Amino acid sequence: MNPAIWQPLLDILPHWVNCHLYTLPGHGQRQHDTLTDLQHLSHDLAAQCKMIHSHNRPLMLVGWSLGALPCLQLASHPSPPCDGLLLVSSNPRFIMGDHWQAGVDSSVFDQFAHSLDADFSGTIRRFLSLQVKGSESGRGILRSLRQRILQQPAPQATSLQAGLRILKQSDLRAQLESIQLPVSWALGEQDGLVKIELADCLRKLMPAAEIRNYKGAGHAPFLSHSEAFAQQLLEFAHSMNPTQ
Q1: What distance in Å separates the CA atoms of residue 199 and residue 210, rounded to the nearest whole number?
Q2: pLDDT per residue over 186-224, tens digit each?
Q3: What is the DSSP string of 200-218?
Q4: How far apart are CA 140 and CA 7, in angstroms?
Q5: pLDDT of residue 38
Q6: Residue among 185, 187, 184 at smallest CA distance from 224
Q7: Of the residues 42, 65, 135, 184, which is catalytic?
Q8: 191: Cβ–Cβ under 8 A, 6 or more apart, which residues?
Q9: Does the CA dihedral 178-181-182-187 come out positive or negative?
Q10: Maximum Cα interatomic distance, the chain, rounded to a whole number of Å
Q11: pLDDT (average), residues 140-149
């Protein structure tokens, strides 16, 4: 996805939230860059953080799905370039394995890669339709999103493949214990990519983290439950900066 996916949320946030949209390498307007691996993505995000971080205002990283993984990696560093994380529909290990049933079978991502390769526009349209299903303003949001997202340049094929490899190969569970920043999670109970059972695992791995489950939400609760998600974001922002 490109940053246009966030526009419905930005439209309802108050003016004091200073938002900076991060574009993945090889996506949207960053066609001349190429996504390679998680290390590269984390370095790229860290550079963006350094450019926008203000010493008198906290910086919250909001990472969705793949985008949450470099946020987690940066937050585990001794001197992270941010002050808090709001992680949306993501998993420290997306693929299930021994002693980890909170992931999905790797074939899910193989099928998704095939669909994107065969019909990128159609796959994105179907994905967006699923995300706003059940939303009171779903039809209006869907029309606007399709237009905004598909007007942007399509992602590089190599960057899409790299993103899927990151999702299939990353395992950041061991790094969760070293994160000292405040963390809030948002999960959708009907998410087909991130099982709701992950919530129980996170309570053990990150007992200090806040975890919210959105009933009826799929993989993008900030679209289907935008008002409630905005409230979570604002409450978390206030907890990071009580004087605001």
Answers
A1: 10
A2: 999 988 889 999 999 999 999 999 999 999 888 999 988
A3: HHHHHH-TTSEEEEETT--
A4: 13
A5: 98
A6: 187
A7: 65
A8: 89, 217, 218, 219
A9: negative
A10: 51
A11: 79
Q: Which residue has the higher pLDDT, 148 or 39?
A: 39
Report whether 87 contacts 71 (CB < 8 A): yes
Residue holding tokens 């993103």?
Answer: 163
Tell me which H or E stretch contains 226: helix 226-240
The one-letter amino acid code at 156 reads Q
User: Six-digit token pair at 171?
Assistant: 């395992």
Coil, strand or helix at 216: coil
Is 77 considered catalytic here? no
- Catalytic residue, from 42, 76, 219, 224: name it: 219
The yes-or-no answer on residue 20 being catalytic is no
Assess contact for 172 and 142: CB atoms under 8 A. Answer: no
CB atoms within 10 A of CB 128: 22
Structure tokens at 96: 């299930």
Mean pLDDT to the nearest integer, 3-16: 93
pLDDT of 116 above 70 = yes
Find, among 134, 136, 138, the residue nearest to 146 by Cα. Answer: 138
Q: How many residues are recorded in the chain?
A: 244
Does the annotation count 219 as an active-site position? yes
- Please check whether residue 30 is in contact with residue 23, taking contact to mean a CB–CB distance below 8 angstroms: yes
C-alpha distances in Å from residue 132, one per residue of 61, 141, 223 = 23, 8, 6
Q: What angle do CA 29, 155, 127 make, to 5 degrees?
A: 115
Q: CB under 8 Å to 45, separation ≥6 — which residues?
A: 22, 61, 70, 71, 74
Please count the other Cβ atoms lying within 10 Å of the Cβ belonging to residue 154: 15
Could you give all domains of the chain from N- to C-terminal order, each with its CATH number? 3-237 (3.40.50.1820)
